[in-house]
Amino acid sequence: MSYCVNCGVELNEDLTFCPLCNTPVVNPAAHPVSVPAHSAFPKEKGQVDVVKRKDLAILLTIVLSSTALTCGLLNLFVFNHMLWSIPIIGVCVVLWVLAIPAVIYTKFTLYSSFFLDGIAVGFYLYALTYITDGNQWFFSLAMPIVILLTLLLEIFLFLCIHLPLSSLTTALYIFAEIPIFCICLELLIDNFIGSALRLSWSAIVLTICAIIIIALITVLSRSRLRNEVRRRLHF
Amino acid sequence: MTKNIKRITEKDNWYKLDLSAIVYPTLQRKDFSSVYRLSVVLKETIQPTVLQQAVDIALKRFPTYKVAIRKGLFWRYLEPNQRPGPFVKPDIRNSCMPMPFKANNRYVIRVYYYDRRISFESHHSLGDGTGGMCVLQTITAVYLRLLGARISNQYFVLDVEQKPDSGEFEDAYLRYANAKVRPARPGEKTYRVRGTKEPFYTLNVINGIMSVKEVSAVAANYHATITEYFNAVLLYALSKKQESEWHLKIRPVKIAMPVNLRRFFPSKTLRNFISMIYPAIDPRLGDYTFEEIIKHVHNYMQYYINDKFLRGDITTNAATQQNPLIRIVPLFIKDFVVRQFYTKIQDCNSSAGLTNMGALKVPDDMKPYIERFDIYMGQPFSSRTNCAIVSFEDILTINFASSIIEADVERLFFRKLVQDGIHVKIESNRDMEVLE
Q: E strands within B329-414?
């Protein structure tokens, strides 16, 4: 039985500090290797259960699938002069795939859900070739861009997960990926319209981003600078 | 066929939220939990399997507690919940954590066991402390009976064989909201305790255990009741804390204290039937000595706690909910308005909460099995501390619950009790290493 020297209250035997004034309990008479005192409170902390968004998933699935179905049927039997329902059905499918990690199946890793999103968008664009003349634009422009974007997103994700994360490093990754994307985009466009492969506007982006990247790396590598920036810009 | 019929009648059965229950689900957020906890400490270690049986048996008697909270277009409502559960669980350190309405098989009650203690947590929209105490004591009685004890049905222990009385589900507010005038709600910014917020879902608890005889002797010295005495001590602690800090503007110190309306308006209801009163002192008028505070609190209680004033309060509260314009507003707009009102006005209206359940009546043949009771109020919006008092036989427990690191109010409170010659024993779940 111990008393707090400041507050004068008796303390339960498991307390090593007075909870009121934070004074440590010092009892010279106590045996140093005594049995640990029985705590009045459990050690484990509880977690609030995660709510399953099953209702939302069902609702979303029904709304999207009925939209796709009715548009498809209307296109088949009523307004059947052209394939106008393909973009609508495609959008429904893409939206549904985008909703998978949020409400339908939450156990996917971020990598695989981004991968699925990329595939869905790719298929959507491919479906559009049925209502345009030819599919040359898809194979030489749309598909490479989608693949490139998915790849860059996956790399960004990888960097964010496996390297130390802060707003400065995130900015660094973004500014490193923007010029890569722009250069590839310009080369793809040049290739598509049949002109020579030359850098023009993407070179400007590259220059600007290079300056920003060098500045960011400098700030990141000097801890004094880094802290200064964090202090001045915190929100 | 019979199964079908049964299902239909169960579906038809639903309950409107009572008048004060309406606000609680609206406020339920990650930083606010309108969950309260009632615990009973027995003399033997709890056997979980027997406790589970007891919960299953006892809850049949309480249809308004075996429910789920659902959303309608205009109001939320309670729907009987036939899903498996609620299951008893080993106790956790952070009691009264928020209850998402869709989790836990949609149950909004929880039962925990730890060592010799059974804890019952309930969302406040199901009922107040009196209702919850009926559930807890009935569960305890059934548990003890399953272990071979003979416990009679008396006071808070209800007969589990009996059919539930319809009077137990009533919204008793509406029956008594019949005053001819609607007194204005008190609205004034009060002193707010400042503190460092704890991370998510932490509830710091400090229990003070003392003897009822000692406390009532001290209170009698001041010519006050135990409730008045504790109210005065808390006001004293809060005003001392305000004095010790630097403030641009000194504000009045006010306590929000629920009053059990069943004392004044007969009702068997197990749902909410409480009204708030606000004992206060205003340090802007001058410095109060403790004797002056206790006299002031005593006079306030004598003046205010009677059926006339309380009826006026009930009428004011009911008028808002009964207003036809308010009734047809969709729920999400109501939610938004109520939340704004609560965070901006109601929460600023008091510096701390204090609830006193008083001396608990327990059937004579159950007394030998029980050591003491505890009550905790859930995590509030602001950095205030809530204080709950309950007594059983000669043991009086004061349970402080807060979500801030500092324990200044608690320290001032208990030191005052010690100064007045009361022997206080302290228990806590606070993690002291964190504080260095």
A: 352-359, 370-376, 385-392, 395-402
Cβ distance A20 to B410 less than 8 Å, yes or no, reads: yes
Same domain, B162 and B290: no
Q: Residue B400's domain spans which residues?
A: 204-369+379-435
- ipTM surpasses 0.85: no
Closest to B142 measured CA to CA, from B127, B120, B125: B120
> Distance between CA B218 and CA B416 in Å, rounded?
12
**Min Cα–Cα distance to chain A from B218, Å:** 17
Q: B93–A21: do the CB atoms touch at under 8 Å? A: no
Q: Is residue B430 part of a domain?
A: yes
- Kindly report, residue by residue over A143-195, the tens digit of the pLDDT: 999 999 999 999 999 988 888 777 788 899 999 999 999 999 999 998 888 88
Nearest to B413 by CA among A24, A40, A8, A15: A8
Same domain, B338 and B274: yes
Q: Look at residue B166 and tell me if it is in a domain.
A: yes
Interface of A with B in 20-59 (CB under 8 A): 20-22, 38, 40-52
Domain membership of residue A196 (yes or no) is yes
Residues constituting chain A: 235
pLDDT, one tens digit per residue, over A61-116 is 999 999 999 999 998 888 878 888 888 888 998 998 888 877 777 677 788 888 88
**Residue A195 is part of which domain span?**
163-235
In a domain, B313, yes or no: yes
Residue with tokens 């130390």: A164
CATH of the domain at B416: 3.30.559.30
Tally of structural domains, chain A = 3
In a domain, A150, yes or no: no
Number of compact structural domains in chain B: 2
Which tokens hold the place of A124? 């959507």
Pairing state of beta strands B425-428 and A10-11?
parallel
SS3 helix, strand, coil % of chain B, rounded to 5? Answer: 40, 20, 40
pTM for this predicted structure: 0.70
